[in-house]
Structures are given as C-alpha cells and as structure tokens.
Specification:
This protein has 292 residues and is an alpha/beta fold. Among the domains are: 1-88, Winged helix-like DNA-binding domain superfamily/Winged helix DNA-binding domain (Arc Repressor Mutant, subunit A, Orthogonal Bundle); 162-263, D-Maltodextrin-Binding Protein, domain 2 (3-Layer(aba) Sandwich), CATH 3.40.190.290. It is 46% helix and 26% strand. The strands form 2 sheets. Strands 3, 4, 5, 6, 7, 8, 9, 10 and 11 form a 9-stranded mixed beta sheet that branches. A two-stranded antiparallel sheet has the order 1-2. β1 (48-50) and β2 (55-57) form a beta hairpin. The longest helix has 32 residues, at 59-90. The protein is elongated, with a radius of gyration of 30 Å. It holds the Pfam family LysR_substrate.
Amino acid sequence: MELRQLEYFVAVVEEGGFTRAAQRERVAQPAVSAQIRRLEATVGQPLLIRASREVRLTQAGSALLPHARAALAAVRDARLAVDEVAGLVRGSVAIGTVTLHPFDVTRLIADFHSDYPDIEITLGTDNSDVLLAKLQDGGLDAAIVSIGVDEEPPALEYAVVTDEAIAAAVAVRHPLARRKTLTLTALCEHPLIVLPIGTGLRTRLDAACAAAGLRPRIAFEATSPLELAELAGHGLGVAIVPQSMAHQRADLSSVQLVPELRGRLVWAWRRDMASPAARLLCERARQMIGGG
C-alpha cells in the first residue's frame, strides 16, 4: 500500500469521480485508475462502485477511508515538523520599526541570534503607513508601528508596547506654557511642529482636525519626535509629541489636548504568518513586552 494510492483514493472520493480527481492531482486519468486498481488488489476488496455518473464507496472503501485520511494527515504533520526545524535553521526574518520607540529591539535580535545564529534577520525603519503596508503584503514579518486606540489593522495581530496621550509641547517661555489644556481649535491657531504624513502621530492629529473641520498650521516637519522636541525647545512652535517625551524634558512644557488624542505603539505581525523563525521571534517579542 503506497501513499500515492491513498492520495488518489481519497481524491476520487472527495471529488466524486476519476476525472476530477486526476485534475486535482495533476495527473492523467488512467494513472489514477491504475493506482486505485493496485490498491484494491493490495487490500483484496473492491473499494469503489464505478457507475456511469458517479463513484460510490463499497463497504470496504468506507472502512478504509478514515484510515487513509489519517495516514495522509500524519505524513503532512511529519513533513511540517521537519519544515519547522529546517525553517529555524535556514530561515530569515524581516522586521521594521518607526524611528523612535521604547522597545529593546536590539536585545531581542541579539538574544535570538545567539540561539539561532544561522537565521538571517533584517531591520529597517520607516513611517507607520509604509510599515503596515509592507506587513500586509508580506514584505515584512513583524513591525513596531503606531496605530489609533480604536484601530484594528486588517489581517494583523499585535501586542501593545505603549498606549499614551499625545500632547502639545512648547518651550517654557512660550505663551502656552502656562496652560494646562488646549482645544484643537486653539491649537490650530499656532504654528505646529509635526512628523510627516504617514506617521502615527501625524495621522492621529490630521484625523482629529479633519473631524472637527479644522486645518492645522504646519510650520515644520521632522522625521523623529526627538527633532520635534528640539525645535519646540527653541521656541519655533508647538510640537505634537507623546506626552511622556514632553514630561521628560526640562526645556519643554506639556499641554493636554482637548479632546484627548491617544496613540498606541504595537508589535504587529501577520495573522497568517508561515515562517517558523518569524513565529518564534514574535513569540519572544510578546514575552518581552509582557515582562516574561
């Protein structure tokens, strides 16, 4: 009894005939018929009743079918187990990140490389929109990106790294420095220092302003929140930054936006991820995020 015979037998049953089974297995119909006859000779019983318009199981065929399916499933599982090992030996993982985040990606990569030195790991940076697009089209295995608090990126899973308010940061001598809160309307009366379009912070700001019918006055764009803070510290405008960053700098004053804007940094990966190496790396990342 050969695996190929069992494959053809199951295909004939599931497809309801020899012609469709041959098409499914991508072989000529006589090859399927010949293998089924050999299988029947091996078991010593007819397995199929060949009618003009349909193929039905005999009693012996019905008895064999679940065992044939179990045997084929066991072979697939065995192959998958071998592929998993091979993937961890020879695999590759592509990671992307936004320019600034608190997650220790370098430690994650270093520890993983120590355990699996033959896995190739690539790391790149870009804005959140680009990284999310690359995740969804398979260009990346995982990425640290910014998403809204109510946003659920399609086809992706994620673990939250940070979830915090977005603040307006101004120099301590700025007229707004004495304010505790600032409406979006009042914010848009001042020159703003923001990240480029496509980044998480910018997307949150633009969406809120659009919903309120406002148009922000963009004075400067910079590629990193650190640069935003530096420009604001020199009195060049109001920087839109994570609240924690504004609180960390002595030369800046943090003003709460009303209504509150929030953003999340997440470690995201494809829901249908196939790479064994990428799955293992993502599991380690989740453990680090969760404090494991």
